[in-house]
Specification:
Belongs to the PlsY family. It is a multi-pass membrane protein. It is found in: Cell membrane. With about 200 residues, the protein is mainly alpha-helical. It has one domain. The chain is about 70% helix and about 0% strand. The chain contains ten helices and no strands. The longest helix is centred in the first third of the chain and has 26 residues. The chain starts with a helix and ends in a 13-residue tail after the last helix.
Amino acid sequence: MMTLVFVVCAYLLGSVSFAVLMSKAFGLADPRTYGSGNPGATNVLRSGKKIAAALTLLGDAAKGWIAVVLAIMFGAHSAQGVTTIALVALAVFLGHLFPVFLKFKGGKGVATALGVLLALNVWLGLAALGTWLVIALVFRLSSLAALVASIGVPVYAMVLGLPREWVLASAIMSLLLIWRHKSNIQNLLAGKESRIGSKKTAQ
C-alpha cells in the first residue's frame, strides 16, 4: 500500500508543468502554442525570456529529484525499498510526459529525468549532464544532446554498479526519451532541427 501511495504522489508531482506555470507567471504565451509546442524549458527559451526558461528547467528537475529523494528517505528500508524507488522514479517521469493536469500531453522529460538520476546516484546524474552539455555546446542542438545522453545513461548505471531495478528504470526512461524525440530525430535527419536559443515561430 505504501508503495502505491508513493507512486501515485510521484505521478501527480510529475504532472505539474513548470513550463506552463512560469509562462503564466511571466505573462508569456502558453509554450504549447509556439515553437515545438512542447511544454519544456527549451521551448520556453524560444520566448526570449531566459529567466522563465531557467526556472522551468530547475522546477522540472527539482520535482524528479524530490520524488526520488523522498522515496529513498521513507521507503529505502522496507523489504521492497529498491523496487519502490525505481517505481517512483518512473512514476514522476511518466507524470511529466503524460500529465493528468494537461490532458496527458506533457513535455519530453529531459530535465525531470536529470533530477531523477541525480537523486538515484549523483555520479549517474553528473555523467548524463556532462554528456548533454558537451553535445549541446558543440552542436547547439538540445534534442541531439538529449538523445546521446539517453543512450549513455543505462550504460553509466551498469558501470556504477547500481541495483538492477534502477538500471532497468533508467533504461525505460531512456527509451521513452528517445521515443518522445521521434519528431526531433526526423528534423535532425532533415537538417531542420531548431538550435538552442532560436526565437519562437508562429503556428
